[in-house]
Amino acid sequence: MGDPLAIEAMGTVFTYHLTGPCDRTEAIQRVATELERIEGRFSPFRAESELTRLNRGRVGAISVEMEEIIWLCERAKEATFGYFDPWGGAAGFDPSGLVKGYAVEKTLELLLSMGFEEVVANGGGDIALSTAAREPVGIRHPFLGDSLCAVVLCDTAVASSGLYERGMHIYNPFGAGLGAVAATVVGSPLWLGDAMATALVAAGPRLLTALGVGFEGFVVDSSGEMTFTRKFPFAAGVDGA
Fold first, then answer.
1. Is residue 192 within 8 Å of residue 75, measured between CB atoms?
2. CA–CA separation, 21 vs 115, rounded Å?
3. pLDDT digits 0-9 by tens, 96-137
4. What angle do the packed helices 190-203 and 96-113 form, to 10 degrees?
């Protein structure tokens, strides 16, 4: 697929591996514009974002896209039995645990619409793929720096969440401690897998049995023990043990 395109946004790096006879310079410009647009609307750290103004009561009619994100968050909260709860924090509504996956999917769709034949889009560990064959995706080890604890084969989406980059940014909405230090969910849509991975860090392995049809999960707890669903798609010879 050639060298990846890389764009800094949302406090992380988005990378894109592309196949197809299309203009890569135009691609990076359009993707950067789309990521800036999404971050400008949903960032809790920007004073004039729609999200910040909404939480401060400074928005009249909200945008159609904000309505969509609120609806997706409601679905994700229900699907995770409340362990993903964007309304549970002190700052008000914060959909950050879902928006990054949403942004990855939106930019993948944009690149496909431009005529690229295959796309692997990675936003800080949240990955959406449109490829002819399953691709190997590494799962970062939460305790061993740049090492991997597993590799999965996937042609849909992979979402990861953990404490290894941003520290204690995840909370348990039910008041107990966190059940894991890292979690990965394989399945589509990515926005829901993203929320599920966040919920798995909060709840721990017990939530694995509640993942919906089409999703598989992998969890690493604070002792380093790894737990995963029966059909989690490990690459041959890599089983998380």
1. yes
2. 8
3. 999 999 999 999 999 999 999 999 999 999 999 999 999 999
4. 160
**Do 27 and 15 contact (CB within 8 A), yes or no?**
no
User: What CA dihedral angle connects 158, 65, 10 and 80, to 10 degrees?
Assistant: -40
- CA separation, residue 240 to residues 72, 154, 162, 208 (Å): 31, 16, 17, 15
DSSP state of 210: G
Structure letter (DSSP) for residue 121: E
List the domains of the chain with CATH numbers.
Answer: 5-228 (3.10.520.10)
Closest CA to 183 of 210, 166, 167, 207: 207
Burial (0-12, 13-18, 19+ Cβ within 10 Å), 76 = buried
Q: What are phi and psi of 71, to 5 degrees?
A: -65, -40
